[in-house]
Amino acid sequence: MEQLTQNLKDGFMQLLEVPFPALEKGQIMVRNHYSVISAGTEGKTVKDARLGYIGKAKARKDEVKKVITAAQTFGVMKTYQMVKNKLESPSPLGYSCAGEVIAVAEDITEFNVGDVVACGGNTANHSEVVVVPKNLCVKINNSEILKSAAFTTIGAIAMQGVRQAEVVLGESCVVIGLGLVGQLTLQLLKAAGVKVIGIDIDNQQVALAHKNGFENAWERNTNGIEEIILQQTKGYGVDAVIITAGTSSLDPINFAGEIARKKANIVIVGAVPTGFDRKNYYQKELTLKMSSSYGPGRNDVEYEQKGHDYPISHVRWTENRNMQAFVELLENKKIDLTHIVSHVFPFNKAKEAYELIVNKSENFCGIVLEYDVKKELKNEQITISKTLHPGKVKIGFIGAGSFAQNFLLPNLKNQHLVSVATNRSNTARNVANKFGFETCTGDADNIINNEDINTVFIATPHHLHAKYVIKALNANKNVFVEKPLCLTTNELEEIKEVAAKSKGQLMVGFNRRFAPQIVELKNKLGNALPKAINYRINAGKVAANHWINDPEIGGGRIIGEACHFIDLCRFIADSPIKKITANALSSANSIQDTVSISIAFENGSIASISYFSNGSKKLAKEYLEVFCGEQSIIIDDFKTATIYGKSKYKTKLAQQEKGHQQEITAFIEAVKQGTSLPISFEECYESTKATFEVVEQL
Predict the structure, then answer these.
(1) Quick one: average pLDDT of 92-101?
(2) pLDDT of amino acid 652
(3) Which domains are assigned to the chain?
(4) How many distinct helices (H) and strands (E) make up the chain?
């Protein structure tokens, strides 16, 4: 199938041949008939991509700060490669579409194959096939309105703005900004019995409003526009103002303050600054509100990804119910998009549509992409190339996000890379092209069942690790899985059972064992015992709603990350764990991520792990001290190592080195030679089990 993508480096746009996206729990697969281009949101994305590096930096100042921070941690060259990788990756466009359901996940009961639906969200892209969570899909009862229904997501944005305005039958509302969202807002307000006034700086947009039957639409620079609005509202001012404009000017927010009555609501839907003049807002006690996209549920993982609805008695209008309401208005002909749809482009000419937006060569409003639904589509792997590679290691890769692309895949150069699977079609194709895989797919089972593959790398979100580890071991593959090995004790025991029967071997990506400074530490200490280890991790704060803190997806920060540090201490001590205890800092929330862990080893060594999330970001992340045999070794953030013995000396690396390259090299060499993996399953099992014990104690 084909998907429209854009390169963030230079704005290069193409229809990319990609595999079908992966269909996961709670999702439906839809063959697009139509998708809508949001000229405002997508137009800015396209324009920003075409800027030079300085222009990009000005447009994305927050991203520049992240780059500077990364450079301080990883070094300039590594950060450069990470940024380059991000910019050169093809990114999908679009977030509002409509089409026919062609597959549903096993747990879906609300939709059936053959249903006609409207879809929204980050995966409702300009693509021949999309996969969308169920709460971002609504059924369409009348297939004749399918083209109009492709606007549903954008309609929900307009509808949420209207709901935030809290206007009722007979009241008045001004809409500032008469682009696509503004035009839809006018129609929604009219359908609700509200007296509507439209304002825009562009006379063409005002003319379009007139064409749609809104006589009270005016240019912003019309002489006496404030007096005109007062006359329309019997001298009181309007009951609400909805700003759907996109501009860097303060005029919309200040103009809203001038024309609003006392105690009115001002709602911001578009991208405008909020540094308003205080006078009107203070004297009139105006309420300024921000409208959040399609409505309640937006960007809530529990709602969007996991499909948990909000009770209607508590949240009357969620984003899904807003989408449903918009479709019903279309079906009942309360909204007419005849004049709003200004252009319809065949999907294979999508690039021309964006050139129209960027160059403004014609007047436009609603731009629709129409798909060839008679074209035969097959859910097949995409063949990239067929290259002969020496050696016996034939690799399949499941999951290839930023971490895998920056820290794992670059270390697999010159290996036989057979196939890569990711749930995002464009990522699968990009990774296959960039790193030299023969094929790409959206279905991980194609990796597991491929007899050509004898070694599987797993770098998916944490909750999928156990699933694919078990499948790969059952298929007698060698497995490298990023930490954590799994999220529950039951999963761990099942993996243990399967690993014992499998002809393949399993290793967890505990890379710090392989860091050059850890290797030097082990050599310096030799067989001396016992060892006293003090390991401080300035983990930093992570938002409570971050995926790592979700027990079902990330497993929490102890399972998701602290397993690294438990394993490293076990490696340095070179002894099984005898006892482990843990205490957490009291917190107002239920997240326990400031934790002190104490470990006693069977050979008499001890370790103290301080995993703290409440410190300053300016402090380096990791600080390791090891005391043994009248020697003291300090490793500071895997950059510097100071050794105190009969004399003192210090080594410093050019950049942080945590052992990723050495880890991959050792793993591949062991598979080639048919020897035991560099970390035994027993140690991977022990470190993982110890992590679960910490969580149980907390």
Answers:
(1) 96
(2) 93
(3) 2-151+340-370 (3.90.180.10), 154-290 (3.40.50.720), 382-503 (3.40.50.720), 512-697 (3.30.360.10)
(4) 24, 31
